[in-house]
Amino acid sequence: MQFLDTRDGPSVSLHQAIACGLAPSGGLYVPAALPVLNMAEAHHAQTLAEVAEFALAPFFAGDLLAPHLADICREALTLETPLKALMVEHSYVLELFHGPTAAFKDFGARFLAACLARLPAGQAGSQETTILVATSGDTGAAVAAAFHQREKVRVVVLHPAGRVSARQAHQLGCFGDNIHSLQVAGSFDDCQRLVKFALNDDELRSQLTLSSANSISLGRLLPQMSYYAWAALTHQRARQQPLNVVIPTGNLGNALAAVMARRMGFPVGKIVFATNANAVLERFFAGDDYQPQTSVATLANAMDVGAPSNFERLRWWYENDLELQNAFHAQAVSDAEIEQIIRQGEDRYGQVWCPHTATAVNVLEQLRAQSGDWDADWAVVATAHPAKFETIVEPLIGRALPVPQALAAMLQRPAQHLAMAADEPTFKQFLMQQSYRAVV
Ligand SMILES: *Cc1c(COP(=O)(O)O)cnc(C)c1O
Fold it and tell me: Which stretch of DSSP H or E encloses residue 370?
């Protein structure tokens, strides 16, 4: 399949789109088509890796990565994705935090790393590639974990100073080796702007093989379809009903994957976007013009996004804004509501929620109260383990949370960061130094 540039640059094949991340025009790559698959052919696909292979085959068709698809899925998508029934009837949670860094970003990061490792010589990933990642918390650690100590890859992670949790920051700085952690004096949007700048800077591109692992990367977006496809098929087989989902949303990468899975015929029902107080999507889906904003800091920091980078892709699939607005619902949740949901979590659902997941739980409660429909099956998507945000969660539930083993191991290693101003020349200088260091 070919991949089109949302800003009308030349189309490319899959491995090219994965290798460069952002299109040279500054646009995003989108699949030329979303084929509708025959679900009768999905019956042999049971595990996440098998469902992924079935769902992703059309995108890989004709590409030099196609012969590797099965191996890539088996290497990267071995993580658990339990769909658990909650104490409230017709309510489920799809847990996406059982990977090495305890957030859903592990799926995309591992898949991207597995793809890049299989590109032939001369392509990104095979030749001293520098991967740039702006992170509002979880992406950076997932990418760092996926690429740590891989040969010929250097990862530069930018995070907004003071805007990520202490454990998230520790995770970012604890890898060392080929992973560089930059602490940027600014917001996540500043970090994202610096990465976009570097990827489009001719001088940098002539000196370094640059790639991006942000949620704009197709290599992350595509595999995220697989857990929605898997959960919807599993639910359909068990209950003969589509699975409606509420998705904690920031840059719209996770939710966009659900949209794509539904378009391809997987039995995903309604898709609702839950955001924190950054309410750009709520206003747009309520009928306003799309108006990106400066992000504000919230308890759900990995969703502190004022200009969702995948919005351009979502818009691409729809004729006009009205059609898009009619297809989805988005709702913003305040910090006070997040706190209340976490406080009530164990009594009401038998669960401890992370602040991101709590936004989805709140939105589901509101949807049900407003519609009076308590019989449809809904899943909230749990995007991170609550122990990653212990300083928020533990005071609310009044006890300490056990830390997942992989996270505990990372917290025991020392962490190091380099502080940096949020401006382009400084970042460029840092990257140029990296290129000289590579030559020496
Ligand atoms: C990244 C992240 C989100 C938001 O996902 P997007 O793909 O950016 O919409 C939500 N929750 C957690 C825990 C995250 O790390």
Answer: helix 355-371
**DSSP H or E run through 248:** strand 243-248
136 CA distance to ligand 1 middle (Å):
9
Answer yes or no: is 236 within a domain: yes
Q: Are 255 and 271 in contact (CB under 8 A)?
A: yes
User: For the segment 347-365, what is each residue's pLDDT rounded down to a tens digit?
Assistant: 999 999 999 999 999 999 9
| Ramachandran angles phi, psi of 307, nearest 5° | -140, 80
Number of domains the chain contains: 1
Q: Is 394 contained in some domain?
A: yes
- Please, what is the Cα angle at 94 between 88 and 98, to 5 degrees? 130
Buried b (16+ CB within 10 A) or exposed e, 238-254: eeeebbbbbbbbbbbbb
224 lines ligand 1 (CB under 6 A): no
**156 inside domain:** no
Residues of the chain with pLDDT under 50: 436-440
Q: Is 250 in the pocket of ligand 1 (CB under 6 A)?
A: yes
pTM of the model: 0.93
Q: Does ligand 1 have an atom closer than 6 angstroms to the CB of 103?
A: yes
Is the separation of the CB atoms in 92 and 243 below 8 Å? yes
What is the CATH number for 381?
3.40.50.1100
Q: Which one-letter amino acid corresponds to residue 92?
A: Y
Residue among 304, 281, 426, 404 nearest 355 (CA): 304
Instruction: Name residues whose C-beta falls within 8 Å of residue 268's C-beta, 6 or more positions apart in sequence.
Output: 228, 232, 242, 243, 244, 245, 258, 261, 262
Q: Is 355 in the pocket of ligand 1 (CB under 6 A)?
A: no
* Cα distances (Å, whole numbers) of residue 255 to 85, 220, 251, 438: 21, 12, 9, 38
CA distance 209 to 19: 10
Give the mutation target among 94, 138, 191 for probing the ligand 1 site: most ligand atoms within 8 A of CB. Answer: 138
Residue 202, Cβ density class (10 Å: 0-12 exposed, 13-18 middle, ≥19 buried): exposed
Q: For 233-273, write each residue's pLDDT tens digit.
A: 999 999 999 999 999 999 999 999 999 999 999 999 999 99
Token pair listed for 271: 């898709």
The parent domain of residue 398 ranges over 83-103+219-403
Q: Is 234 within a domain?
A: yes
What percentage of the chain's residues is helix, strand, coil (to nearest 5)? 45, 15, 35
